[in-house]
């Protein structure tokens, strides 16, 4: 017996229903899916450390470039001694054979980058949940603390809170907007803005270096929680503090890609997004150490200060260069305190002073937390790179005490430093600021 053939009417009805459902769902989901918004995972991606890449360079093979462009590698750190780069699971084999062909070996710093990211996340959740005093304490209105990393809004709320607690000495500026329209905020702390010498501190130029905004907000807290009792060399300065220079990138690392470095501005004639803000400043911009390729993590942008973030900060600082004695910018990782120049293989004129103050900070850090930092000239330890904010502040504004501080760690976690290390690392950052303030006198 053959089965009865289905009636034609229900089939038509079903078809109509499917069509209606398709129309309905098309209205609730975005018409075009933006691949940039799909969260990036790093399951079984490995973090490698590769030594002796400069030897391979002499054989005309730009190892880091090849690994970045051909094998989709994500460069974490490149200096005169080694390259740290993470490689997606799918590319591990091919990248290994490439290295073998170059007679290079990779030391595996981490066998699963996603596990590092998950550990960082869980560490923060546990640290903030397990504290019984957290809920009952009503001392601070903002939800700021240094047991975990925070989103931009929490950082900005903390800045507003500082301003409202010290209305007479604190001013909060919105100095402009980022590429995606977020506010760029700077606090000024001063008892005498007309006369006191100035120190500028920024963080978060590079999105994924989360310890940087955490440290700069901690410096702010250290200053203000005890302002009345601060020594004269601290109270007698005008402090400019910008915890997040790259808010778009920072938020992007929180929602979508933990390892994003650049800002988020679109590029003409390329689908790749973002400029490395620390290659975008107007000093040695077209020289070594940056890329003209919009897809590279060290893309310098279409022109010096082409980026809103760079432009706004340089204009703000240029107007205030009188009495500007120090420029401190916090990055990670590597545990180094470096000073100009970076764009050329020359030391700044008063390098001996900068080295001495750097050494003092290194010693104090060792006493306080036991961490080993190194003070050095940038080009000697990190290689030559133009377009940096540090060199710019020296060359364009004549700032004397210019330091880039590379916070923890030395590669075990890299950018993905678990929150339990925030407090000590931030204390190390504060120690540098204190030491420089004292040197200004
Ligand atoms: N890791 C930092 C960067 O690559 C180091 C900055 C040192 N200064 C410089 N102008 N390159 O941006
Ligand atoms: Zn950086």
UniProtKB/TrEMBL annotation:
Does Phosphoprotein appear among the keywords? no
Write out the annotated subcellular location.
Secreted
**InterPro entries, sorted:** CARBOXYPEPT_ZN_1, M14A-like_propep, M14A_act_pep, Peptidase_M14
Question: Can you list the GO cellular component terms from the UniProt entry?
Answer: extracellular space
Biological process terms in GO annotation: proteolysis
Which residue positions are annotated as catalytic? 406 (proton donor/acceptor)
Signal peptide feature range: 1-26
Output one GO MF annotation: zinc ion binding
Stated family = Belongs to the peptidase M14 family.
Name of the molecule in the record: Carboxypeptidase B-like
Q: Which organism is it from?
A: Drosophila madeirensis (Fruit fly)
């Amino acid at each position: 017996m053959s089965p009865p053939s289905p009636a034609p009417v229900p089939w038509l009805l079903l078809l109509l229903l499917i069509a209606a459902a398709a129309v309905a769902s098309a209205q609730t989901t975005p018409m075009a899916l933006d691949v940039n918004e799909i969260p990036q995972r790093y399951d079984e991606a490995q973090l490698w450390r590769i030594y002796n890449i400069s030897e391979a360079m002499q054989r005309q093979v730009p190892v880091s470039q090849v690994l970045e462009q051909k094998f989709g590698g994500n460069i974490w750190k490149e200096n005169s001694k080694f390259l740290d780069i993470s490689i997606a699971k799918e590319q591990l084999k091919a990248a290994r054979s490439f290295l073998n062909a170059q007679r290079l070996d990779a030391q595996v710093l981490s066998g699963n980058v996603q596990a590092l990211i998950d550990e960082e996340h869980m560490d923060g959740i546990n640290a903030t949940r397990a504290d019984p005093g957290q809920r009952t304490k009503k001392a601070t209105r903002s939800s700021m603390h240094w047991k975990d990393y925070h989103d931009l809004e929490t950082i900005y709320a903390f800045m507003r809170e500082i301003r409202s607690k010290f209305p007479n000495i604190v001013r909060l500026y919105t100095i402009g907007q980022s590429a995606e329209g977020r506010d760029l905020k700077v606090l000024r702390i001063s008892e005498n803005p007309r006369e006191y010498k100035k120190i500028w501190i920024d963080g978060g130029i590079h999105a994924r270096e989360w310890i940087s905004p955490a440290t700069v907000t901690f410096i702010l807290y250290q200053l203000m929680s005890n302002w009345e009792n601060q020594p004269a060399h601290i109270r007698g300065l005008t402090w400019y503090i910008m915890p997040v220079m790259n808010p778009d990138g920072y938020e992007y690392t929180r929602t979508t890609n933990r390892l994003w470095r650049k800002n988020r501005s679109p590029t003409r004639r390329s689908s790749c997004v973002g400029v490395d803000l620390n290659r975008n400043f107007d000093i040695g911009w077209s020289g070594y150490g940056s890329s003209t390729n919009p897809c590279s993590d060290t893309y310098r942008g279409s022109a010096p200060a082409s980026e809103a973030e760079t432009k706004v900060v340089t204009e703000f600082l240029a107007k205030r260069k009188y009495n500007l004695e120090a420029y401190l910018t916090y990055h990670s990782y590597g545990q180094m305190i470096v000073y100009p120049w970076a764009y050329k293989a020359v030391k700044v004129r008063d390098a001996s002073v900068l080295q001495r103050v750097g050494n003092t900070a290194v010693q104090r850090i060792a006493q306080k937390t036991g961490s080993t930092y190194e003070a050095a000239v940038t080009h000697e330890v990190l290689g030559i790179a133009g377009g940096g904010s540090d060199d710019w502040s020296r060359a364009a504004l004549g700032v004397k005490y210019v330091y880039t501080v590379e916070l923890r760690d030395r590669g075990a976690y890299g950018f993905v430093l678990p929150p339990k290390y925030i407090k000590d690392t931030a204390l190390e950052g504060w120690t540098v600021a204190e030491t420089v303030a004292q040197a200004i006198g």
